[in-house]
Specification:
The chain has six helices and three strands. The protein is mainly alpha-helical. It has a single domain, classed as Orthogonal Bundle (Arc Repressor Mutant, subunit A), CATH 1.10.10.10. Strand 2 and strand 3 form a beta hairpin.
Protein backbone atom coordinates (compact mmCIF):
# COMPACT_ATOMS: atom_id res chain seq x y z
CA UNK A 1 0.00 0.00 0.00
CA UNK A 2 1.43 3.35 -1.01
CA UNK A 3 0.78 6.79 0.43
CA UNK A 4 0.62 8.34 -3.04
CA UNK A 5 0.49 6.85 -6.48
CA UNK A 6 0.94 8.05 -10.03
CA UNK A 7 -1.35 5.20 -11.06
CA UNK A 8 -4.25 7.48 -10.07
CA UNK A 9 -3.51 9.85 -12.97
CA UNK A 10 -6.55 9.64 -15.23
CA UNK A 11 -5.13 10.66 -18.61
CA UNK A 12 -5.85 8.26 -21.47
CA UNK A 13 -2.34 9.01 -22.82
CA UNK A 14 -0.78 7.97 -19.50
CA UNK A 15 -0.91 4.23 -20.15
CA UNK A 16 0.73 4.70 -23.55
CA UNK A 17 3.56 6.83 -22.16
CA UNK A 18 4.35 5.00 -18.90
CA UNK A 19 4.69 1.23 -18.56
CA UNK A 20 3.45 -0.53 -15.45
CA UNK A 21 6.99 -1.11 -14.18
CA UNK A 22 7.75 2.60 -14.62
CA UNK A 23 4.68 3.54 -12.56
CA UNK A 24 5.83 1.14 -9.82
CA UNK A 25 9.35 2.66 -9.76
CA UNK A 26 7.97 6.21 -9.76
CA UNK A 27 5.68 5.27 -6.85
CA UNK A 28 8.68 3.89 -4.97
CA UNK A 29 10.62 7.15 -5.28
CA UNK A 30 7.50 9.24 -4.65
CA UNK A 31 6.95 7.46 -1.32
CA UNK A 32 10.65 7.71 -0.44
CA UNK A 33 10.52 11.49 -1.00
CA UNK A 34 7.39 11.68 1.13
CA UNK A 35 9.16 9.73 3.92
CA UNK A 36 11.94 12.33 3.95
CA UNK A 37 9.46 15.20 4.06
CA UNK A 38 10.14 16.26 0.47
CA UNK A 39 7.40 17.22 -1.99
CA UNK A 40 5.98 14.20 -3.79
CA UNK A 41 6.82 15.78 -7.17
CA UNK A 42 10.54 15.44 -6.34
CA UNK A 43 10.12 11.68 -6.05
CA UNK A 44 7.95 11.48 -9.15
CA UNK A 45 10.43 13.44 -11.27
CA UNK A 46 13.44 11.50 -10.03
CA UNK A 47 11.62 8.18 -10.49
CA UNK A 48 10.67 9.05 -14.06
CA UNK A 49 14.19 10.13 -14.99
CA UNK A 50 15.61 7.04 -13.26
CA UNK A 51 13.47 4.82 -15.51
CA UNK A 52 14.43 6.46 -18.78
CA UNK A 53 17.55 5.71 -20.80
CA UNK A 54 17.24 8.99 -22.70
CA UNK A 55 17.22 12.47 -21.22
CA UNK A 56 13.89 14.28 -20.91
CA UNK A 57 12.99 17.95 -21.27
CA UNK A 58 10.94 19.73 -18.63
CA UNK A 59 7.98 19.71 -21.02
CA UNK A 60 8.23 15.93 -21.37
CA UNK A 61 8.39 15.52 -17.58
CA UNK A 62 5.31 17.73 -17.20
CA UNK A 63 3.36 15.76 -19.81
CA UNK A 64 4.28 12.30 -18.54
CA UNK A 65 3.60 13.08 -14.88
CA UNK A 66 0.79 15.59 -15.49
CA UNK A 67 2.37 18.14 -13.16
CA UNK A 68 2.41 21.91 -13.46
CA UNK A 69 5.28 23.90 -14.89
CA UNK A 70 5.93 25.34 -11.44
CA UNK A 71 6.16 21.89 -9.83
CA UNK A 72 8.40 20.60 -12.60
CA UNK A 73 10.68 23.64 -12.50
CA UNK A 74 10.96 23.67 -8.70
CA UNK A 75 11.46 19.90 -8.55
CA UNK A 76 14.14 19.81 -11.24
CA UNK A 77 15.98 22.74 -9.65
CA UNK A 78 15.90 21.13 -6.19
CA UNK A 79 16.96 17.73 -7.53
CA UNK A 80 19.83 19.37 -9.40
CA UNK A 81 20.95 21.10 -6.18
CA UNK A 82 20.81 17.75 -4.38
CA UNK A 83 22.96 16.19 -7.09
CA UNK A 84 20.16 13.76 -7.99
CA UNK A 85 19.65 15.18 -11.49
CA UNK A 86 22.03 16.62 -14.07
CA UNK A 87 21.35 18.94 -16.99
CA UNK A 88 22.44 17.86 -20.43
CA UNK A 89 22.27 19.49 -23.81
CA UNK A 90 21.95 17.42 -26.95
CA UNK A 91 23.21 18.51 -30.37
CA UNK A 92 20.47 20.19 -32.41
CA UNK A 93 18.18 20.59 -29.40
CA UNK A 94 18.04 24.00 -27.69
CA UNK A 95 16.05 22.71 -24.72
CA UNK A 96 17.70 21.81 -21.46
CA UNK A 97 17.30 18.10 -20.83
CA UNK A 98 17.67 16.11 -17.63
CA UNK A 99 19.03 12.75 -16.54
CA UNK A 100 18.97 11.04 -13.15
CA UNK A 101 22.12 10.47 -11.13
CA UNK A 102 22.06 6.75 -10.48
CA UNK A 103 25.21 6.42 -8.36
CA UNK A 104 23.81 5.91 -4.87
CA UNK A 105 26.89 7.27 -3.11
CA UNK A 106 26.64 10.63 -4.90
CA UNK A 107 22.87 10.78 -4.46
CA UNK A 108 22.95 10.09 -0.71
CA UNK A 109 25.94 12.40 -0.20
CA UNK A 110 24.13 15.25 -1.95
CA UNK A 111 21.00 14.69 0.09
CA UNK A 112 22.83 14.74 3.44
CA UNK A 113 24.97 17.74 2.47
CA UNK A 114 21.78 19.62 1.62
CA UNK A 115 20.12 18.60 4.90
CA UNK A 116 23.15 19.81 6.88
CA UNK A 117 23.07 23.16 5.08
CA UNK A 118 19.36 23.63 5.86
CA UNK A 119 19.88 22.60 9.50
CA UNK A 120 22.75 25.10 9.88
CA UNK A 121 20.66 27.89 8.35
CA UNK A 122 17.66 27.19 10.61
CA UNK A 123 20.10 26.71 13.47
Amino acid sequence: MTAFSVANISSSDQQVDLDGWEIAVIDLFLNAANSFGLPKSYGQIYGLLFCRDQSLSMDEVMKLLEISKGSASQGLRALRQLGAVSSVFEPGDRKERFVAEIRLRKLVGGFFANRQTHTAIKG
